[in-house]
Predict the 3D structure of the following.
Amino acid sequence: MEMLLYGLLLMIISCEKLTFGLYYCCNFTVLNHLTLFVACFSAVSGQSLTSSDSVMKKPGESVTLSCTVSGFSVSSYWMNWIHQKPGKGLEWIGHIDTGTAFAQSLQGQFSIAKDSSKNMLYLEVERLKTEDTAVYYCARDS
């Protein structure tokens, strides 16, 4: 599979069985470097990312979301958290590998951790605000 990016167009050439999936993109800034982030939620046999159930919290409370991984190790890939606020596009929150990095606009609001022994990824949000209402996704870099 070959993927070419032209502006905001993603062109996939030589489509294969493993190419099947939903593709989303969002931009993010880390260390003053603008990058196009493409999260592929593909149907790879035996691999899955399962986020925790929906939760409702009051402003000022804290929440920890979890993502259970199967079919690969969280230690072998950069693992990302992304969210989508109502009526908005996807926004990259941050990633974890040997350390963490966050979108500049979101630094200090979130923390990311992983437990390699349980193969789980976590996102903690403290002092929730109404504007934190969103759908949260975990994603693996390829």
In short: The chain has no helices and twelve strands. Residues 1-8, 26-43 have pLDDT under 50 and may be disordered. Residues 43-140 form a domain with the Immunoglobulin-like fold (CATH 2.60.40.10).
